[in-house]
Amino acid sequence: MQLTDRAVVTIRRYAVDPLATRWSALDADSKSIACAAVILGAVVGLDLPIPW
Amino acid sequence: MSEQTPNDGDTVSDPRLRDSVPGIAVLTVCAIFSWIAALIVPAVSALQVAILVGFLLANVVGLPAWARQGVGTHKVFLGAAIVLIGGSMTIADVFETGPIVLLTVISVTTLTLVTVEVFSRNLFGIDDKLASLLAAGSGICGVSAIVAVGGSIRAREEHVVYAVATILLFDAVTLVVYPVIGRLLAIPDKVFGVWAGVSMFSTGPVVAVGFAYSETAGQWATLTKLTRNTLLGLIAVGYAAYYARRRLDGTNERGARLRELWDRFPKFVVGFFVLMLLASAGILVPGHAQAIKHAYNWLFLLAFVGLGTELHLSKLRRAGLSPIAVVFATLCLVSVLSLLVLSIVLS
User: Fold this and answer.
1) 3-class SS at B214?
2) Rounded to whole angstroms, how far apart are CA atoms B251 and B247?
3) Which of residues 1-52 of A touch B (CB under 8 A)?
4) What is the ipTM of this complex?
5) What are the pLDDT digits (tens) for B269-297?
6) CA-to-CA distance for B105 and B109, rounded, in angstroms?
7) pTM for the full model?
8) What phi and psi values does residue B67 have, to the nearest 5 degrees?
9) Would you say the C-alpha torsion B321, B326, B330, B332 has a positive or negative sign?
10) Which residues contact A11 (CB under 8 A, 6 or more apart)?
11) C-alpha–C-alpha distance, residues B279 and B242, integer Å
12) Measured between CB atoms, does B173 come within 8 Å of chain A?
């Protein structure tokens, strides 16, 4: 297995899948709050510009 | 507002999670279309176009099965947008008009509950529990309140369906009528926002109508509606106690009922107030506030396309004539009175 393939598998196993599992376990209100927190973090922490 | 998702170890490869992607893509495409349509025709709001697009998608084209799960996530986007609105308001704004709004919310909610109960039982001979469901739906927060109170009083399923259909019908009507009345009477933004928040039914349509009218109206509509939503627990517990006493069953179901109430309580309200506290503490600079405003406008577009898809003509036809008459009479009374009072107090 090539290095990039192993990296993808590792990221998926230890980051993406656990995150998806936690996300699926949340109810809609908690997902809303999490979604808002991510956007807020991106705006405040990274100065992410959001056009309209 | 709750969407139940079992904790059973979904992964990215799980079909339920993966199957949301096409529906979210549909919401995104429709949202971008609505945004472009509003740029081309500035007289219409992108939010109104989004609801219309969703409505046409569900009732004319037909929502494809592969998109249903993803489109159903629109409540998540609505909740996230409402949380972010908290970042555009400060405690100083609330204290300025807060006591008046709070007093109006309590007065109007009480008036609505009493009017629906009295009209239903004394004039239209509607079943007691159906009357209570209609009162909760009209007085507090639409479908969520009906489901919460329905659970707490052990209402029959068909009564819940009737009440939900009636409230959905009025959500659809008020979505169109309120902005028209607002423009015709040239109601100031703040008065319109509080009026919509205090007299319309479900949270989604209140926020949609408010922001379609103006940014200021949208913020006040949201704050007022969220204040009203916080009464859900109190009202549902009151109804549960009333019907339990009437049954004289003596069983102890309080724990289960409180759990059900908490499950149904729109918890994103907490996020809204936390973000308002952060904004009041000066954590957000003007550039951040602008980006957050744009973010919640995009989230609203996604949410309102989904909201439009929930306005099924077939569902609306299920509402009986008596429930419609009761809710219509109450809505007329409450909206006229509250508009008069708010016009005097807030103008």
Assistant:
1) coil
2) 10
3) 12, 16-17, 20-21, 23-33, 35-37, 39-40, 43-44, 47-52
4) 0.82
5) 788 888 888 888 888 777 788 888 889 88
6) 6
7) 0.70
8) -100, -10
9) positive
10) none
11) 41
12) no
